[in-house]
Every structure is written in structure tokens, then in C-alpha cells.
Amino acid sequence: MSVSRPTRGVPLPSFWQVLGIVAVAGAAYWLWQNSPRQSGPADAEGLGANLRGIEELSDRGADAIPDLVAMLSSSDRKSRYLALQGLGRLGERASGALDAVCDALRDDDREVRSNALWAFTQICSDSESLWPTIARMLADPDAGIRESAAGLLDGRTTHHIAWFARRQPDALGRRLLTADESRQMNQTALAMIDSDRAETRGLVIRVVTAQHSLHDDPEVTAALRRLLGDSEPVVRASAISALGKRGVARVEEIHAGLRDADSRVVDEALQSANWLGPEAVQIMPDLLPLADTIPDFNLPALIRVLRLDRAAAKMLLRRLVRRAGSPEFQAPIRSAARPDPAARQEWQNPEIRKRLDVVAFVMELGAEPTEFRPVLKSLIANSHPELGKLAAGLLTRFDPDEARRLAGQMTVDIERDPNREGDSPSMRSLHVLSGFGPAARDAVPLLIRLIDEDDQKRPWIAWYSIVALGGIGPDAAPAVTCLSSVLKRLKSVDNSWVRGEVVVATLGKIGPAARSTVPVLLEILDQAPNSEHEAARPANTAAAQSYPVQYDRVSAALGRIGDNSDRVVARLWREAAVGRPVQRRLAALQALLGLCRHGDPIPSAFLAALDDESVDVRLVAACLGQVEGDRSSAIPGLIRALTDDDPWVVSAAALSLRAIGPAAVSAAPKLRELTADVRNRAPNGIRSSHHYGLASLRFDPGGHDLSRLSVTEAARLALESIVRREGGEVGENEEGG
User: Domains of the chain, with CATH numbers?
Assistant: First the structure.
């Protein structure tokens, strides 16, 4: 995006002050390791004397500099190490010793060089020396020192190099370099681009591409193109990746990357192809052979590019069907037999995600049910029940009749098994059953009975049954009374923490038919927090724990149930208030998107959330175009959101402006500006990731997947709606109002 929102945050603690303490501790440990072994007390006294001596010497100020510099010439490395500690403690007062400290950066001892780098940053504030000296350390023989130098230059450490330039913080606590200083720093790093060390060349790429404001710097782009022919595959891969993310990768460069002999380069070339936008169709001929040869772990990257040209991708349909049905693709995924309460989103398992991405794309391309049904059924039978559950959902969409038949068969198997042990086939079937959705509606009476039995020796039976009811959704309405009883019981007795959470989630998935449980859900929101669970939810444990308050799940359930009475809406606004944990606020705001009533003005709290510190909160607020009624008061805030540094927020804001229509014509100039930036052509999911709860966020109406949508596409959709009046475009002279 051409205009970026300032990074939000508060001043961070001084990492290098902490590092100084750590360095002293390191010196103490080093001395302990290398000093002659004596008795314990004598050893401790000798170590303490050394450290106290350095502190006392440093306390003398500038008068101590000659003695400390003399120690740097010692043949004893621990003396050199401690001398650097003393000089670093003096900071800028030791500027006269800077040449001696720079000499120590070339010391034979790794620990001395590391401490010299720390001392140098404490003493030097002149960018004329600071930039190139740290850049030269990118070529240090030690990987840790190279990484430290790179972190200072690209901002990955707690403090960027600007902190050492004594830059005064701005209103948000940031210490920033000017554009000229950033260019100067890039030039000093580029001086190391021809280093004999491949790791150094890779770090140079990282440093010079970290300055997003300089994404169009031709000198950096030229250097990256030189490295496309580097002898080391990892450098070539980094170079093509950087060119792609900067929006300057050429089609012929992607061509060459896809033909590279190293899979890492091929993978990064595939990733970069996503940034080509419409030009990606030109590389489709290179993708045809990859469908047979690319390793399974690279298939998702291939799929993302193929999605840019569905017509060409159909040429690969049979090959992809064959890959999906291969023994390697269908190989079992190991999984724990019983549910892991901490793994609330097990679909994030990369192996599961990879298989589902490929299978879903093959379905999108129009695979024949008779040909592809065996592939889905094989995945449903996989040893990993979560993969089976998600594959069942795909089968329900792909072949509803077969899904109903298979779900019915699993229901019979579950009912016939009297034991239902945690690792039994029937329990695996109960887990998978939730994936069939409405196709498993005939299982509802059995699931209610299993919950009512409340087998204390096998609590997982009730747990899986509740999850299955949630998967079935509105057709599980007959279970509301049973679930309400479970929820009330869990408030007063010890039980697994996850049982209460899953009951709440299931009531939400049943929807409006669960409205009778709203009073109970509101009571839960009013419970005092359990600090232990609020701080961090527990890992998988079989031990009984008291039921904690799952505020975010309750808010989400209320939103799905759809009760927009005054008491519910008011309570959710309290949940969304600034000061609450972000996850609670997000759930409440998402629920409120669907509960705000037609004709009511947009609440001021929603408008304020557009400028929230949390990017996720801003994202949900930017979706306020989904609220029906008069949204004109949101137009200024949504236009500001078009300058957000997160592409998801920008896309959501553009779609909201689209929903508002011609009344938002003042946003047209900014929307046109967004379409002109080549970086905005890439899908949002490629550019940045979001918390799993928002990763699949869809903007309705229209059902736009914000992960697959690009800023360019969202801006164009908005312009199509905003600049048309009775079939004609708004003229330039009308765009101001």
C-alpha cells in the first residue's frame, strides 16, 4: 500500500541494557570455567574481585579509559573481555577508546568480539561509523554475531539501530530513521553483497529488504537481481522471494526459478508467482510438469498459483486427482487417540492443511464424483480423526447422498459398540461424524442418549457427542434441552474445562433454536474470571478442573443464536470495551456485526475500534459495512483504514465502502491509489497472516474470503459500486463530496 499507518505500540524496555547484564553474567561464567580450580569460597572471592574491580574502575569515569584500553592489549582474553565491559559501561564518555574497541571486533576470540560489538553500540552514536561497522560484522566467522548485527540493522532485535543513534522517540515510542539514513544504511549493507560467505549474502538480503518504505529502491532491486544467479541455492531462494514481495519480480525471473534444480528455489519462485497478479498466466506452461514432480509439501504453493488461472489449471485436473489418490498422499497421519483440549484448531496441522488444500482445489476444478469419491473416502478413513472429519465435510459438499449413507453407517457402528474405548474404531467414527454436518442429522437421538448417560469413566464419549451435535448444526435443535442441562451442571461441579466450552460452542452452532439458553449464557459472561485460565489455557490434562469462564466462546454463541435484544447487545458492548483481553473483544465485536439492528446508527464504539491498537480489532471493525442501515458516519474512519499497514484491514474497509455505495465517493481517490501499487495485487493471505479465529473471515454480503482477496481486487470492487450512478461514472469534479 502506498500509505502506511504508523506501527502501534509502546516504548520497549532496553534490550541492550539487559544484554549488558547478561554479558557480565557471561563473563562470570567464563571466568568460573577457565580459572584454576580452588576451593569454593576462594573461587567465588576471585571472581567477585574481578567483577568488582571492573565496576570500580568504570566508576572513575573518563580517568579509567587509559587503564581499560591497556587491558585490551593483554594476552589474557578474559582481561580483554572485562575491559570491554568497563568501556561499554562508560558509554559515550569512552568515545576516545572507540578505535581500540573497533580493533577488538577483529579479535580471535568469539566472546571478545561479541562483547566488543555490545561496547561499540554503547559508545558510538555517529552513523558515519555506526552503520558500516555493524554492517561489516555481517561477515563475522561466528553465526551468532552475524545474526546480532543483522538484527540491529533490520530491526528484528528489541531495538533497531536508530536507538543507538540516540534518536528521540516519537509519540508512539518509536525511534525511526529518516529516509536518507535508511538509504545510507542500505548502502553500507550492500557493500557486503559480494562476501565470500553465503550466510552473509543472505543476511544482506534480509537487511536491505526490511525497509518497507524503500521497496522501490532501484539499487536494492539491482543487487537482488544479481543474486538470482548466486552459487548457493539458499541465496537464490532469498533473492527471488525478496523480489516477489517487493512487487518487482519479472515473469522471466519466475520462469528461471521454477526450473531451478533446488526445491527451495522452486518453492520461493512459486510463492513469488502469487505476487505477479494477472501476469501469472504467463508461467502456467512451467507449472504443468511440476504437477507430477513437485514434492507433496510444495503442493499448496502450486495450488495458490493455479488458482489465478482456473482455465489453465483444468489441464492438470487428472494429474492432481492422481496425486491425491497416491499412496504417499494418502499415508496415515499419526494422532493422539483422545482429544487434546489445547488443540482447538488442529486443522492448522500443516500435513492436514496441505492435503485439504489440494483436495478442495480438485473439487473446485470439477472432478467427477465417481472418480474422486474414493479419494475422499480414503482420507475420511485416515488414522488422523481430524483429517477424517474435515474430509467428511468436503464429501458432504461434493456428494451429499454418499455423505448421508456413510454417516448413517458410522452411526450404526457407534451404537453397536458397547465399549467405545478412546482408541476404538467407533470412537474415531464419533469424532469424524461431526464433519458430515446436516448429513448426520439421523444420529441426533443417539448423541443425546450418549450425553445423558454421562459415563464418568469415559468422559470422551460425551465430549465427542457434543462436538458432533455442533457439526450437525441447526438440525440438532432437539438437543438444546440436554445441552442446557449439561451447562447448568458444569457451573457447580468439577469437570474437564473443555466440556463447558464445547457445550457453549455447540449451542451457538445450533443457532436461533437455542435462544432459550441465552439467560444461562449471559450468567456465564457475568462470572468472575479464573485468573489461572485467563492467563493461559491449560495443556492437555486428564485431571478434573473447575469450569472456567470461556468469555469469547459465549460471545460467539450469542452472535450465532441471533438474539439482538437490548440486554444481549448491551452486555456484548461491555465485552468489546477497551481494556478487555483482545480475544474477548474480538469475539464480542464479531457477534455484534450480526446483531446491530436495521435502522439503528452505527455505534460510536464500532467507529472507535477502526483506530484500535490491535490490528485484529481494527480488522473486525473494518467489516462494519455488513451492518445494515445508515453507515455514512463510518465513511471517514473507513477512508483512514485504507491507509492501514495491514492488507486485510484495507480490503475489509474497501468492501465496507463498497457496501455503502455512492455516498462514499470521497474514498475514490484513495481507492484508485491502492490499485496503482503493484504489491497490492497479491492475495492478503500471502502478504500476512492472522490469528486462526480471523484467518477464514468472510465479508458478507458477497462471501468474499479476505485471505484469498487482494487489496487491488477489493479496491476495484469498491470503485465499481461507488463511482456508478444510474449506470454512469462520477466525474472527477464530483469526487470530493
Answer: 602-737 (1.25.10.10)
